[in-house]
Each structure stands twice: as C-alpha cells, then as structure tokens.
C-alpha cells in the first residue's frame, strides 16, 4: 500500500521542487582529487562547482544537511531529499567515495554530522564515466576536514517534529582514532507517522467514480553503521564497513469512501474500502575495501567487494463494503514478500601522467537475485487462492561494466575530459510453476565529454555531454497488484526495459557568484506509471500500469546567485529555472494480462518555471543567533500522468548556538500550499483526478550536542561495490 501511495503522489522523481526521491543500480566510483582553494566561497573548477564551507559564515553551528540546502544549485523542500538544479536527484559522495548507506540513512547521517567537520562541497551536475550513476542524476561530493590528533568525539542529536502527529527521533554518532586504526559509528532511532488525505476521481461522460479518505502510516525506524579503516603502511589502507536499517510499519490503515455514478441511468453505488497493512523491512550491507597508492603523484589502485541483503515482508487485508446494505462485497488477503541478494566486485586504477594528464580505468561486476512469492487469497467471495494474481517470481540480473577516462589540462585556461562506459546486462525472469519466463540481454555504450575554459578571472565557460542508463527498481519488476479500491490499483511489470538518457549542459560562471546553466536531456524507452481505464459491466476499471511509453525531451535554463551582503551578515542563494518538456508515446495494453484499453496518448508539450530563495541572516555580532527564510514556487505543468497544479512553500528557521550546543526551530510550509493536484483528461473522454494533502505544515525542534576531541582525524571513506544496487531495492 505504501508503494502505491508514494507513486500516486507523483512527487518521486517527477515534480521539480516537491519531494522524493529517491532509487540504486550496480557499481563503481572513483576518487575525486581535492582542489586547493583560495579564499573564494564559490568557485567553478573543471567539471564541478566548489563551495568553500570553511570561508562561509553560514557553516557554523548547523548540520551537514542544512548546509547542503544552502549550497548553490542544491535544494530541498521536503527535508528528506536533495535535488540538483531543482530536478536531478543527488547522489552523495564523501571524500570522493559513494556513501555506503541507503537513502534514509544518508539523510540521517547528514543531519547528525556537524557542519564544522566539512571543508568543501563539490556539485557535479554531469558526472563523468568513472561514476556509475543513473539517468540524469548529479553528484554532491562532501570533502571532510583533515585533523591529526587521536581520540574520540561525537554528536548527540534529539529531534521532535510536530505535524499532524508528533514524531520524535534521536541519534548518536561517534568517531575514534588510535594510531593506524580509525573508525566511525552511528545509531539512530525514530518514529514517524505519516498522515495523508486523498481525493480521487475517474470516469467519462457516462460514468463517474470518486474515492475520498485518509491514510495513516506509522513507522518505527532503527539504523546504524560502522566504518573501520586500518593504515597498513604509508601507501596502503584496508577498510571495512557495515550498514543496517530496520523499518516496522504495523497497522497502516487507509479508509476510503467510494461513489460510482451511472450518469445515463442516474444511479449511485456507494461503498467503503478499508485496507490494513503490516510490513517489516530489513537490509544489511557489508563492504571490504583495499587502496594502494602506487606513486607520489596520486596514482592508486582500489579494490572493493560487497554483499547486500534486503528483505521485506508485507501483508494486507482489503475489505470493500456496500454502504446501503452493509454487506461485504469483497475481502482478500495479500502477501507480497521480497528478498534481494547482491554480490558486487570492482577494481579501479588512476594513473597520474606528465603534463597535467590523468588516465583512469576500471571494471565491475554485480550479481543480483530477487525472490518474490506473491499470494492473494480471496476470502469473500470464498474462492480461495487466486491463481491469476498469485505468483512466485524469481529475477536474476548480472551487470558487467568497464570504463576509461582521460583528463588533461592545456595550460591555465583550458582543460578537458573524455571517456566512456560499457555496461553489459544479462537478466532472466521466471514465474515458477507457470512456465512463464523471459531473457533480456543488452549492452550499453555510454560516452562522456567535457571541456572547461577560463576566459579570465571573472568568467568561466564549460560544456559536458553524458549518456546514462536507468534500470527499473526491483520491486517495480515484481508482477503484483497493489489495490487502492476494488477497481483502482497499481500493477507492476517485469517486462520493463531500461531507459537511456543523453544529457548535455552548458554552464557559464560570472565572478564566482552568478551562474547560468543550459541543459537538455533526450530519453528513450521512458518508464512511468500510466493510468489505463476501461468499462466492464458498467463499472470503470482503472489500472496504473508501470511501463515504457516512448520518448521524452527536457530543456532547462537556470539562472542563479550565491552572494553575501553586509560583510557576511546576509547570505543569499537564489535560483530561477525555466523548463520545457516534450512527451511522445502511447500505451493501450496491459503487458501482464494482454488486456486492451482505450489508448492513453502522450503527445504534449509543457513550459513551466520555478523559483527558489534561501536567505540566512546573522542576528547577533557574537554569531550565535541566525534566522533562515526560504521560499520556493513551482508553476503548473504537464507531467506524464496529467496536469499538475502549482506548488509553493514558505519555511522559517531560528538557530541559537551556545558552546557545544545548537538549538534549532524550523517551521515548514507556513502558507499550507504544498499540496498535490493532478488533472488528466484524454481526447477519448476519460479523465483521472488525484488530489493529495500530506500535511506538510510542520514545526521541527532539534537539539545537537558535540562532545569529545574536536580535532580528531576522520577515517578514510571507501566506496562500495553495490551502492547503485541499493537504489533499486526501494529500501
């Protein structure tokens, strides 16, 4: 049910400034060299933008997540995800290595890490070939400060969120170093109950169906990680990391009132649908890393192996009752368990050559198996196990990848980088006992090119082109249905193909404070959730089908400013974006059942814009009181599903720093305008309406205490061979 609700919100990867985020594919990473900074706060270097945190007055007494929200080109409006240029999902790296944590754990870690520990933040809008990232995702690389002393330090954080419900959480992070051994660990716990209100409508000029009601989803979360790093010698390091996360969502309840109106016969059928869901999720990840510096120029060999296991047990009971007679018309129990196991291996070598030249190459291998044993038992009518909707689906996927890049500087003004990735994917899906299976094998050649020209000390121009693949999440491939009402449900699709992205960007920087970005993405075999409707015995059936529909183009123009006024008292981070998207495709068949529907045609264009204003104001000369004023506005736009109404949010914060304590009060969505309203209408007369209120008006109070030796050296961060796979688990 939660997967269904998240999808229906259409805030995950679709809406520019409103929500989620986030998804993890196969392998890779590579070291990013640390750039020696001058006293400029914001700089453009080669293929990335660099925010010099140490020289910024806003970086005192806050946490890493809040600091990232004030980084140029980075934004967050739900306090849970980070976006680049308002639309591209952000992949977090630490000291050039991808973080070995799932999305929620990464955010928890960032919120518990003091901003004083950060030296620089690098924003890479178009990653090069050595980075394995999805679609048009960008990278945020956090460079930690280097400190030399042994000892122990840590951060204790206590947080209380008051929205529709009260949601407390707490966490502790500890770092230690003794001689050649260093380590860090984190333990966090919290409860979060999400409240949502839905208004749904669909039909045509002869029949109208509406559903309205609430969803209450309680969650308990427990997570943590342990990282160890041992310095074998001056040039060799061995690292180990373990990460886990547990989620319990018990008695998640949706209660909807439904009306089906026959407009030709003027009759009404009234029902209620009650769905109660219990789910338990756990994942564990282990990683072993070896690094050998082969010379004094920066050349190095990195070897990595990893294991990931993910398990989710979900069970729900769905009951539809006639309002007038109080007779149960349908009742069923559905079990949707999923087990994912992944083994990942990778090797990277970076060779520093003469004349400012770097050659990088490497390879990776990922083996993933998913096991999905779906059972649907019809209780009323008493037909027992539904053989059509019960299936045991096993999916195997092997991804082998190779890359090579060559980077060179031609004097002080011009530098360039060229490279490519080759990814070979072999996959097989089988429904056990039904003789239903398929093989999907394909190779992806993914080129990359970038160039950077420093016109003079105040002007910089750069261009980048990259090709990427986006594979479906594993839970989306599981051939199961998730019901909202008796005739309204989401259907997954194991036959979805990977989408291919061709991204290019032109970036101009003025005086390290102002920037203009032009970007374009062409996407083939786009994957989306498409609503298909048809009439059966006078009732409209609505299926949200996950499938490939055609191609899409995205054009963007972003103008931004990162500037301090009044000697650092006021820090302003402003961004304005104009976008134009073109959709081209058609869907008329359920790929699982072969049922034919009236065609859902995607032949439209849309132009929309957004504004993001972040202001940090120092209120005292002692630098212990700060005021934050943030605002975003997104105009209405067409998305695949339909027309999305405008969104906006005004957020305020007040921060007090007292010795090692930081007190922060935040009020989000003060105007109460961050709500979803989608209206889809087809030429064949069918329409579909989704309105959702997630009660985003909230007040958050956080207390952070830093303890121990604050001059402790951070351990070496290591990449993980299955980081991208984690995105696709949905965990």
Question: Which residues sit in consecutive blocks of at least 5 with pLDDT less than 50?
Answer: 4-39, 713-718
Summarize the biggest pleated sheet. 30 strands, mixed
Number of helices: 5
Number of strands: 38
Q: Name the structural class.
A: mainly beta
Shape: globular
What is Rg?
26 Å
Distance between the termini: 15 Å
Strand content: over 45%
| Helix percent band | under 10%
What average pLDDT do the residues reach? 85
What does the model show?
The protein has 731 residues and is mainly beta. Helices cover 5% and strands 66% of the residues. The protein contains 5 helices and 38 strands. The strands form 2 sheets. It has a 30-stranded mixed sheet that branches. Strands 1, 2, 3, 4, 5, 6, 7 and 8 form an 8-stranded mixed sheet that branches. A hairpin with a 6-residue loop joins strand 30 and strand 31 (625-634). The protein is globular and about 80 Å long. The chain starts with a helix and ends with a helix. Mean pLDDT is 85; it is low at 4-39 and 713-718.
Briefly characterize the structure.
By secondary structure, the protein is mostly beta strands. Strand 9 and strand 10 form a beta hairpin.
């Amino acid at each position: 049910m939660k997967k269904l609700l998240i999808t229906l919100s259409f805030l995950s990867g679709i809406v520019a400034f409103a929500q989620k985020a986030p998804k993890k594919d196969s392998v890779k990473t590579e070291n990013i060299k640390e750039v020696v900074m001058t006293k400029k706060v914001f700089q453009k270097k080669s293929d990335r933008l660099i925010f010099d945190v140490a020289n910024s007055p806003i970086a005192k007494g806050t946490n890493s997540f809040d600091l990232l929200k004030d980084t140029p080109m980075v934004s967050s409006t739900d306090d849970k995800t980070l976006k680049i240029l308002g639309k591209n999902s952000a992949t977090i790296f630490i000291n050039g290595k991808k973080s070995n944590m799932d999305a929620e754990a990464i955010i928890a870690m960032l919120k518990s890490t003091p901003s004083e520990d950060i030296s620089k933040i690098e924003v890479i809008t178009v990653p090069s070939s050595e980075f394995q990232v999805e679609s048009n995702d960008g990278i945020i690389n956090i460079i930690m400060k280097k400190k030399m002393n042994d000892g122990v330090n840590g951060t204790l954080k206590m947080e209380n969120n008051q929205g529709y419900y009260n949601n407390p959480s707490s966490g502790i992070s500890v770092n230690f170093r003794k001689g050649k051994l260093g380590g860090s660990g984190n333990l966090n716990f919290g409860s979060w109950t999400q409240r949502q209100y839905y208004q749904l409508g669909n039909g045509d000029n002869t029949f109208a169906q509406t559903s309205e009601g609430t969803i209450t989803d309680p969650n308990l979360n427990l997570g943590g990680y342990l990282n160890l790093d041992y310095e074998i010698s001056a040039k060799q390091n061995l690292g180990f990391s373990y990460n886990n996360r547990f989620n319990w969502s018990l008695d998640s309840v949706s209660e909807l009132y439904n009306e089906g109106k026959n407009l030709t016969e003027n009759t009404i059928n009234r029902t209620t649908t009650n769905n109660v869901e219990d789910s338990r999720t756990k994942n564990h990840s282990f990683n072993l890393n070896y690094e050998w510096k082969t010379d004094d120029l920066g050349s190095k060999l990195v070897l990595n192996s990893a294991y990931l296991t993910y398990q989710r047990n979900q069970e729900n009971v769905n009951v539809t009752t006639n309002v007038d007679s109080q007779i149960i018309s349908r009742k069923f129990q559905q079990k949707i368990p999923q087990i994912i196991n992944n083994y990942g291996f990778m090797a990277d070598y970076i060779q520093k050559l003469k004349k400012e030249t770097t050659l990088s190459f490497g390879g990776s291998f990922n083996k993933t198996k998913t096991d999905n044993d779906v059972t649907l038992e019809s209780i009323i009518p008493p037909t027992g196990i539904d053989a059509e909707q019960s299936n045991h689906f096993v999916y195997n996927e092997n991804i082998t990848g190779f890359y090579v890049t060559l980077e060179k500087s031609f004097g002080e003004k011009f530098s360039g980088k060229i490279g490519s990735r080759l990814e070979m994917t072999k996959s097989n899906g089988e429904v056990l006992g039904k003789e239903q299976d398929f093989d999907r094998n394909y190779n992806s050649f993914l080129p990359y090119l970038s160039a950077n020209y420093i016109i003079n000390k105040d002007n910089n121009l750069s261009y980048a082109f990259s090709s990427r693949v986006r594979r479906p999440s594993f839970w989306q491939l599981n051939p199961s249905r998730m019901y909202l009402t008796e005739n309204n449900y989401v259907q997954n699709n194991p036959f979805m193909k990977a989408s291919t992205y061709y991204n290019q960007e032109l970036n101009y920087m003025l005086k390290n404070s102002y920037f203009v970005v032009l970007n374009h993405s062409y996407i083939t075999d786009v994957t989306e959730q498409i609503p298909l409707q048809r009439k059966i015995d006078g009732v409209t059936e609505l299926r949200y089908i996950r499938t490939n529909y055609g191609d899409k183009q995205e054009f963007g123009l972003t103008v931004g400013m990162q500037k301090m006024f009044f000697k650092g008292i006021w820090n302003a981070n402003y961004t304005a974006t104009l976008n134009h998207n073109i959709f081209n495709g058609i869907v008329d068949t359920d790929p699982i059942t072969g049922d034919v529907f009236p065609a859902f045609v995607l032949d439209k264009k849309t132009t929309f814009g957004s504004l993001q204003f972040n202001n940090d104001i120092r209120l005292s000369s002692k630098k212990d009181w700060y005021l934050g004023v943030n605002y975003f506005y997104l105009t209405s736009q067409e998305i695949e599903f339909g027309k999305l109404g405008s969104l906006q949010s005004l957020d305020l914060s007040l921060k007090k720093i007292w010795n090692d304590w930081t007190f922060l009060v935040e009020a989000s969505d003060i105007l109460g305008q961050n709500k979803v309203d989608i209206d889809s209408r087809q030429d064949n007369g069918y329409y579909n309406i989704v309105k959702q209120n997630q009660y985003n008006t909230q007040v958050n109070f956080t207390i952070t205490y830093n303890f121990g030796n604050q001059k402790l050296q951070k351990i070496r961060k290591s990449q993980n061979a299955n980081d991208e796979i984690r995105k696709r688990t949905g965990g």
